[in-house]
Write a structure and sequence with these properties.
Low-confidence stretches: 1-23
Radius of gyration: 19 Å
Largest sheet: 7 strands, mixed
Structural class: alpha+beta
Shape: globular
Strand content: 25-35%
Helix content: 25-40%
Mean pLDDT: 87
Number of helices: 8
Order of helices and strands: HEEHHHEHHHEHEEEEE
C-alpha cells in the first residue's frame, strides 16, 4: 500500500518541477522589476510590473481586464507610471471616476491595436511607407508610427509623441511595447 501511495506523490512532485523548469526556460523580458512570461496573458504579466500600477488601475476602472485577458492577439502600447505622471495634476484621479469611464476607455483602447505587431513588423511597415505608417486602434482612431534616429516613435491624434522604451514583450495573447507618454485620441 505504501508503495502505491508514493507513486502519485512522486508524479505530482515531478509535474511541479517540470512546470518550474518550463517557466525558467521561457524567454522573458524584465519590465518594472518583474519577468514577463510569454505563457501568460497581458493582464497576468502587467499586474507584476511596478512601473505599470497606474495603467493596471486604469484598466480595472475602465472594465477592460476581460478584454486584455482575451485570446487576442492584441498589441498594447503600455504607458509607464512616469508617463501618466506627465499628465496635468489630477487628470488620472479624475479619469478613474465612474462618471468618466467612457473617456478613460477611449484613451486606453487608443493604446491597443488588433493583431500581434512586433517591432520588426512595425519597422518594415515604416520603411515601406516612406518613413511612417498608420494603424487603426481598437477605439477606431489611428496612431502614426515613425523612427526618430534609432527610436521607434508613435504620434497620437493630437500631435503628441511617445517613444517605445521596451519593445517586443511577448504575451500569450499578443505583444506589449512600453512607452514613455500617454497617447491621446
Amino acid at each position: 500500500m505504501k508503495r502505491i501511495f508514493l507513486i502519485p506523490v512522486f508524479a505530482m512532485a515531478l509535474l511541479a518541477t517540470n512546470t518550474t523548469i518550463t517557466h525558467a526556460q521561457e524567454k522573458t523580458v524584465m519590465v518594472g522589476g518583474a519577468a514577463m512570461y510569454p505563457s501568460k496573458n497581458i493582464v497576468e504579466n502587467a499586474v507584476n510590473s511596478k512601473d505599470h500600477t497606474t495603467l493596471v488601475a486604469a484598466v480595472k476602472a475602465a472594465g477592460l481586464v476581460e478584454t486584455l485577458s482575451s485570446a487576442g492577439p492584441l498589441t498594447v502600447f503600455a504607458p509607464t507610471n512616469a508617463a501618466f505622471d506627465k499628465l496635468p495634476k489630477g487628470t488620472v484621479g479624475n479619469l478613474v471616476k465612474p462618471e468618466n469611464k467612457a473617456t478613460l476607455t477611449s484613451i486606453l483602447t487608443y493604446h491597443v491595436v488588433s493583431g500581434r505587431m512586433d517591432s520588426k513588423m512595425i519597422m518594415d511597415k515604416i520603411k515601406s511607407g516612406n518613413g511612417m505608417f498608420t494603424a487603426k486602434t481598437v477605439n477606431g482612431e489611428e496612431l502614426t508610427f515613425m523612427m526618430k534616429g534609432k527610436n521607434l516613435m508613435l504620434k497620437d491624434a493630437k500631435g503628441g509623441m511617445a517613444k517605445v522604451t521596451i519593445k517586443d514583450v511577448y504575451q500569450k495573447n499578443g505583444v506589449i511595447h512600453v512607452i514613455d507618454t500617454v497617447l491621446m485620441p
